[in-house]
């Protein structure tokens, strides 16, 4: 018997696809994830957030959900990529505008593939982050603690989730962000 694992997903969109705008695309992505076997447990409000990095495109609509899945991490990532592709996502340029982006933020308390690799990606300078992408799944997401567009909606659904490496809750990480970053994330 396979035991479901609680996961955290961050969703974002700043493009339209067909007649669907960013908010519609996030709702559609959640429907497709449910059809793929994920059980959505909690869903944040939708938030309007500035594009990152600045100037890379229109503002985003972001949300975070917790879900339960029996899929192992690599298969789950493939499932997320399939849903993105079905909704028009094309992976051409790092941090480019996109119809939908679904990031696996956390898979329970797992650190993948190992602590050294996680630390390497977490400590990568911004200039390298803009060019380099890992060729394997890194969990928890190595820069979640720096991103208000992830932490603010995640605080809606998992404020007490405890980062297995940093030793802090989502609420604590959110409180550590600059006020300006927090103010840029507006509930819609």
Q: How would you characterize this protein structure?
A:
With 188 residues, the chain is an alpha+beta fold. The chain has one domain (5-187): 2-Layer Sandwich (Alpha-Beta Plaits), CATH 3.30.70. The chain is built from seven helices and six strands; from the N terminus they run E-H-E-E-E-H-E-H-H-H-H-H-E. Strands 1, 2, 3, 4, 5 and 6 form a six-stranded antiparallel β-sheet that branches. Helix 5 packs antiparallel against helix 6 (170-176). It is globular and about 45 Å long. The termini are far apart. 35% of the residues are buried. The mean pLDDT is 91.
Q: Stretches where pLDDT falls below 50 for ≥5 residues?
A: none
The third-level CATH topology is Alpha-Beta Plaits
Count of DSSP strands: 6
What is the CATH homologous superfamily assignment?
7,8-Dihydro-6-hydroxymethylpterin-pyrophosphokinase HPPK
Q: Give the second-level CATH assignment, the architecture.
A: 2-Layer Sandwich
Helix proportion:
25-40%
Distance between the termini: 41 Å
Computed CA radius of gyration, to the nearest angstrom: 15 Å
Average the pLDDT over all residues and give the rounded result. Answer: 91
Question: Which word captures the global form?
Answer: globular
SSE succession: EHEEEHEHHHHHE
Number of domains: 1
The CATH class, by name, is: Alpha Beta
Task: Give the amount of beta strand, in percent.
Answer: 15-25%
Domain 7,8-dihydro-6-hydroxymethylpterin-pyrophosphokinase: 94-105
Pfam families: HPPK (PF01288)
EC number: 2.7.6.3
Pathway: Cofactor biosynthesis; tetrahydrofolate biosynthesis; 2-amino-4-hydroxy-6-hydroxymethyl-7,8-dihydropteridine diphosphate from 7,8-dihydroneopterin triphosphate: step 4/4
């Amino acid at each position: 018997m396979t035991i479901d694992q609680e996961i955290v997903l961050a969703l974002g969109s700043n493009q339209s696809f067909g007649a669907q705008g960013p908010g519609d695309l996030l709702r559609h992505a959640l429907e497709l994830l449910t059809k793929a076997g994920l059980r959505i447990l909690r869903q944040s409000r939708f938030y309007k957030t500035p594009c990152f990095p600045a100037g890379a495109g229109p503002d985003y609509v972001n949300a975070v959900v917790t879900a339960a899945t029996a899929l192992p991490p690599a298969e789950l990532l493939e499932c997320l990529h399939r849903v993105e592709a079905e909704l028009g996502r094309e992976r051409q340029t790092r941090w480019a505008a996109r119809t939908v982006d679904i990031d696996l933020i956390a898979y329970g308390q797992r650190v993948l593939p190992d602590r050294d690799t996680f630390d390497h990606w977490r400590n990568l300078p911004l200039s390298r982050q803009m060019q380099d992408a890992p060729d394997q799944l890194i969990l928890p997401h190595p820069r979640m603690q720096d991103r208000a567009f992830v932490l603010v909606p995640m605080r809606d659904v998992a404020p007490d989730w405890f980062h297995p490496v940093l030793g802090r809750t989502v609420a604590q990480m959110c409180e550590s962000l600059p006020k300006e970053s927090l103010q840029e994330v507006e509930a819609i």
